[in-house]
From TrEMBL, chain B:
It comes from Alsobacter metallidurans. It comes from the Bacteria. Residues 227-257, 273-326 are annotated as: Disordered. The lineage of its organism: Bacteria, Pseudomonadati, Pseudomonadota, Alphaproteobacteria, Hyphomicrobiales. Residues 285-300 have a biased composition (Low complexity). This is Protein ImuA. Coiled coil: none annotated. Residues 312-326 have a biased composition (Basic and acidic residues).
Length: 483, 326
């Protein structure tokens, strides 16, 4: 028996079969319950743990259908349209579900019906396990108590006082007076329970655009079997995608373990993908790179591959175009690397229209930008002009001690990372003003110099602040290194 | 000619004979065996014709602490290798995070100004050296790439003979050049086709104290492709022992000073600056010897000069004249 604290008193929140047979019921205070039966085993309610357990169950339930929604704090709502035949019919499916739940130690009841309201009312207040054929919803709920409408306790009491105890009692009444007395909400609840009105429900996760799944009579656990299954799942999925003229951008592979544990692996691709071998490769990379490997335990009995996100992709053409082939190969490489190392670690440069050095080039995830090979880095090469920008930029400019002429001469010598460099050649200043139109910029003007020391090392250094106007003591920084 | 020249020439010949198949057809055109001229005759000769694609080339800094020249040289090689196809091929740069913190992150505009195409770069940041190697191997298997620049930091234990061998095999199979940049490295395993040790070199003087084009002091301490090895006593200079001044130019053994021409994407010998316009400007006919430095005169392909030729009209002769005078 579980109790929770409501307004300072311990109140029974949940109880098992034995306790309810002893005469204890929900809503009793703990002292009353103890008076009825002193030997009650009592536990404190832990709603957070309950919620976690329900989430785990919801994950597990996805083996039956991808559409799983939560119903209150202790119910699951599954849309089994189109998947019941995989289990030999709705009754068999429900039976399998409840059997597994009970084996795992849960007290469970369930119902399958054509309307959400009907199924919910029957599961919570009807038989343990029931399947209602289409069209029989109203009849099936007629005998249920009005509690199955999930009204407020006050409304239930008021209805009881009028002698209305079952749903059939309400359904037979003229609607006008009922609506006037209890509000339109009551009538809509009645309609929903009787299957006359639809009720919107939403799944916990966005529904995949298409899926392929394999159920194994004997749970599989060998790496080789798993790989082969992934490949054949990918083949199925690609056939569906091909028919739709789409390619997958985000794929999810779900492993359902025989003991109920569920593991999801998601990979993203840089371009629409419709190649089974390619999909299998991506998952192999990802599975190999997992810090916490997928543990088959006693084996997986269901595997599902779902395309979470798809994009239009026209029929593949085998081109003679070398560029297109290169782009394709490169996109595949980026996908593979991203699957293994994470999308943020595989990057490309995008030129930015700004003169401010830190912002002039932006590294973005290679997958996101696609791998079109025609970005414009136009003001590149003046013939015979030495590079004016360094090959490598320090992520934070480093302070250097500089001897330089005032106000704006180039450095004569400077010390960086404890090494003294005597400047032999210098070019500059290249004056870069901060971008005032960007908010919160208190940056100072920078005078950049390209300098070369006596050994031939080349650096990009700048003086921050205009002497006399912006600051009285300009500071110097080393920002980049030339080849 | 130093005594080393003869075994060099012999081994270059052996190489070429080995490249001829049993049916008499030359296999030189398979990508992995193709040699790319670097543009400096002496260096190409020491390499036995040029730098081989589909091989592992190791670049380390001649002096500890300053890795910028080595990284510049490695990027120049990458530019040379990706450019040699005619159009620029995509390339991959895998670097360890620590290297980025220590030596600076790759900078798009700088790469563009150096003759590399940042739009064709895929950049991978790896947390540790084993990830670097894994990503590099993946990249080397992708034949669409022109080059893979591999940059682990220091002397990681995972970078052993087996690891380099794996990289070599992957590079040979796909014909993609592997450039192993070793910032912060002290020692290293063998296995690479060439090993370079690179230090800074003063740039050529420009008018008004300006900084000139990138230049490097380069020692080739091993070249398997031409049979040259530091152990054969033909190369007396270990890394970092340059005479302070004056630098020795284009002489085997002591290394060379190589100037990088970003615009043409080719190296040049700064002592022979006058050869710069030999290729693209047929009007200014230079003696054959000078011309050879730019065009290689070897089985190497010479796409770099072709690339230059396309852009030649924009290069005004007056300006070139001023530079040469300076």
């Amino acid at each position: 028996m579980v109790v929770e604290k409501i307004k300072g008193a311990h109140v029974v929140a949940a109880l098992d079969e034995a306790a309810s047979q002893a005469g204890v019921s929900n809503g009793m205070t703990l002292s009353t319950a103890r008076a009825i039966h002193p030997g009650l085993a009592v536990m404190e309610a832990d709603p957070a743990a309950d919620a976690r357990a329900l989430e785990t169950l919801a994950d597990w339930a996805e083996r039956y259908t991808p559409f799983v929604g939560l119903d209150g704090a202790d119910g699951l709502l599954l849309d089994v349209t189109g998947s019941a035949h995989l289990f030999g019919g709705e009754a068999a499916m429900l039976g399998d579900m409840l059997r597994r739940l009970r084996r795992a130690g849960y007290a469970a009841s369930g119902a399958i019906a054509g309307a959400v309201g009907t199924a919910r009312a029957l599961a919570r207040h009807g038989d343990r396990s029931v399947v209602i054929p289409p069209g029989d919803e109203a009849e099936a709920v007629a005998a249920l108590p009005i509690e199955a409408l999930f009204l407020s306790p006050d409304a239930v009491t008021a209805l009881h006082r009028l002698g209305l105890k079952r749903i059939a009692d309400l359904a037979d009444r003229p609607r006008g007076p009922l609506a006037a007395r209890f509000g339109a909400d009551l009538l809509s609840r009645v309609d929903r329970v009787r299957g006359l009105a639809e009720e919107p429900v939403s799944p916990r996760r966005p529904l995949p655009s298409c899926t392929a799944e394999r159920r194994f009579a004997e749970p599989i656990g060998h790496e080789e079997d798993v790989r082969r299954s992934i490949l054949s799942l990918a083949g199925d999925l690609c056939a569906v995608l091909e028919r739709r003229g789409e390619g997958a951008r985000r794929l999810e592979l779900v492993f359902f373990r025989a003991d109920g544990a569920v593991r999801r692996i998601v990979v993203a691709t840089g371009r629409p993908l419709r190649d089974p071998a390619g999909m299998a490769r991506l998952f192999r990379e990802k599975l190999d790179a997992l810090a916490d490997p997928v543990d088959p335990g006693f084996g997986f009995d269901v595997m599902r591959l779902a395309a979470l996100m798809t994009e239009r992709q026209d029929a593949a053409q085998t081109g003679l175009d070398r560029r297109a082939e290169d782009a394709e190969a490169l996109a595949e490489l980026a996908d593979k690397l991203a699957a293994r190392f994470g999308a943020r670690r595989v990057q490309r440069f995008i030129p930015q229209d700004t003169h401010w050095p830190e912002r002039a080039s932006l590294a973005v995830p290679a997958q996101r930008s696609g791998l079109a090979l025609a970005e414009d880095w136009s003001p590149v090469l003046e013939p015979d002009e030495p590079p004016t920008r360094p090959l490598r930029l320090l992520s934070r400019p480093e302070t250097i001690e500089v001897l330089a002429e005032i106000p704006d001469g180039p450095p004569i010598r400077f010390r960086w990372r404890r090494v003294l460099h005597v400047v032999r050649k210098a070019e500059g200043p290249e004056r870069l003003a901060p971008e005032w139109w960007r908010s919160a910029t208190d940056a100072l003007t920078r005078d950049y110099f390209r300098v070369e020391d006596e050994a031939g090392r080349r650096f990009w250094v700048y003086r921050e602040g205009l002497w006399g106007r912006e600051t009285t003591a300009p500071r110097w920084f080393l920002h980049g290194l030339f080849g | 000619m130093p005594a080393s020249a003869q075994p060099l020439a012999v081994s270059a010949l052996r190489e070429r004979i080995a490249a001829i198949g049993a049916d008499g057809s030359a296999r030189d055109f398979t990508p992995s065996r193709r040699l790319v001229s670097l543009g400096v005759k002496a260096v190409d000769q020491a390499l036995g014709g040029g730098l081989r694609r589909g091989g592992l080339h190791e670049i380390r800094s001649a002096e500890p602490g300053s890795t910028a020249p080595a990284s510049g040289f490695a990027l120049a090689l990458a530019a040379r290798l990706t450019a040699a196809e005619g159009t620029s091929a995509p390339w991959l740069w895998v670097r360890q995070d620590f290297s980025g913190l220590e030596a600076g992150e790759p900078y798009g505009p700088g790469l563009a100004a150096f003759g590399l195409d940042p739009a064709r770069l895929v950049l991978v940041g790896a947390a540790d050296a084993s990830d670097v190697l894994r990503a590099a191997e993946e990249g080397l298997r992708c034949a669409a790439l022109g080059a893979v620049l591999i940059e682990p930091w220091g002397d990681p234990r995972v970078l052993d003979l087996t690891a380099t061998r794996r990289l070599v095999l992957a590079a040979e199979a796909s014909g993609v050049a592997a450039l192993l940049l070793r910032p912060g490295a002290r020692e290293g395993p063998g296995g690479s086709a060439t090993r370079w040790s690179v230090g800074p070199a003063p740039s050529a003087a420009l008018p008004a104290r300006g900084v000139g084009p990138p230049a490097f002091r380069v020692v080739l301490s091993r070249s398997r492709q031409s049979g040259l090895d530091a152990s054969t006593r033909s190369l007396p200079a270990p890394a970092g022992q340059f005479p302070d001044a004056p630098p020795v130019h284009a002489r085997e053994g002591d290394g060379w000073t190589m100037e990088w021409r970003p615009h043409e994407r080719i190296f040049a010998d700064p002592l022979r600056r006058e050869t710069r316009h030999a290729g693209p400007e047929p009007v200014r006919a230079f003696p054959g010897g000078a011309l050879a430095a730019a065009s290689g005169g070897s089985p190497a392909e010479d796409a770099g000069s072709r690339g230059f030729a396309r852009r030649a009209p924009s290069d005004s002769p007056e300006r070139g004249g001023v530079r040469r005078a300076g």
